[in-house]
Amino acid sequence: MPSIENYLHGYDPKEQGRLYEQARFLEPRVFDGVDFSSHNHVLEVGCGVGAQTEILLRRFPNLRVTGIDISPAQIARAEHHFESLLEIKNRCRFLAGDAAKLLPSPNAPFDGAYLCWILEHVPRPLELLRNLRQVLSLGSKICVAEVLNSTLFVHPHSPALTRYWGAYNALQKSLGGDPWVGAKLGDLLSRAGFSDVQVRPQPILHDCRDPGGREGTLLYWRDLLLSASENLLDRALVQKTLIDELEIELDHLRKDPNAVFFYAFMKAEARS
Ligand SMILES: C[S@@+](CC[C@H](N)C(=O)[O-])C[C@H]1O[C@@H](n2cnc3c(N)ncnc32)[C@H](O)[C@@H]1O
Hints:
By secondary structure, this protein is of the alpha/beta class. The chain has helices at 13-30, 51-59, 72-83, 125-133, 159-174, 185-191, 211-226, 229-234, 240-255; strands at residues 41-45, 64-69, 92-96, 110-116, 136-146, 153-155, 195-206, 260-271. The chain has a single domain (13-271), classed as 3-Layer(aba) Sandwich (Rossmann fold), CATH 3.40.50.
């Protein structure tokens, strides 16, 4: 069973709550160009606590979604979350299981697949995508959003962020994940047998022209960065003093009227 030891962000309730906030905060960018309006049944791979599931169901009122996640704790939280969402809860169901081990299905029950921030945590993403294709009907749409962590830039330079980010990415790599998988989506989807593969960067740039947006993004990033702090401290990959310095430097960035923030994640779409 996955545990905080082998999953970068861990599965505690605070982290589960962060996933709902993250999905809502990033929705305009993550869902820009995502269209399942003519689809019936999407498999959401690595659905976590159902944060993106809720958005999918609200955006596409005729869609059914099956969410699969390797963590029973995430699935339990997703099911609990949907108990009160009376208008949409009947259109989804959740399964605990390893998406890398999906078995071919003779009737290929899904006509779409949605993956957001999951391939970065998977040791063999190509295998997962190959197996996923076997449960999709021919011509199904797959939409993927993934990290490309080498794109992070802030001005003024933050030495603590640079050191912490290096440790964060090294930890993700050592856990079998890939903090740069976004750049490989075109390659992975093509090699997994998908066609009509399209990949594009989704840039996030903030400067003095949009101080409110910049502050929101920097606050979101502080939470994202700190979501790995317990794991990094446990493994002695960072010291508490570095985390304190990081928080101070992020605070300075938020208060600097000339601060610049840039990050680009990657989005891909293809057909089975
Ligand atoms: C960063 S969370 C993203 C969750 C959700 N997609 C979202 O955006 O809110 C990554 C999720 O992938 C799940 N995961 C990692 N490896 C998996 C695998 N092999 N099969 C299914 N889920 C997996 C983790 O348990 C975690 O819930």
